[in-house]
Design a protein that fits this description.
Layout (H helix, E strand, L loop, with lengths): L1 H35 L3 H22 L5 H35 L1
Length: 102
């Protein structure tokens, strides 16, 4: 008898679970219809506002160099450009010289 009762209870529990799931699905679809009711213009406006807020947030994290750092980085860049220019010129000159020997 106990087994039959427990089986009946399980069936009833599963029925109530199914009903609860159906009710939650209905609630979700009601919420979804509310979201759909927004116009496309409002959605685009919200997206733009969110994007602009994110850009402002990221720009606040950016560190721009001051004048002293800018001069330092510019000198380093000019030095490396000149150094590598001379380096590749010498390699090309040596290769051309070796080519004349062959």
């Amino acid at each position: 008898m106990k087994k039959k009762e427990s089986l009946k209870e399980k069936k009833e529990n599963t029925k109530t679970d199914v009903k609860k799931k159906e009710e939650t699905k209905k609630k979700v679809t009601k919420k979804d219809t509310k979201k759909v009711s927004k116009s496309k213009v409002e959605k685009k406006k919200e997206k733009k506002e969110g994007y602009i807020n994110q850009v402002i947030k990221e720009m606040s994290k950016v560190h721009f160099p001051n004048r002293k750092e800018m001069v330092k980085y510019s000198i380093a860049t000019i030095f490396f450009v000149i150094f590598f220019g001379i380096y590749f010129y010498l390699i090309e000159f040596v290769m051309a010289f070796l080519k004349t020997l062959i």
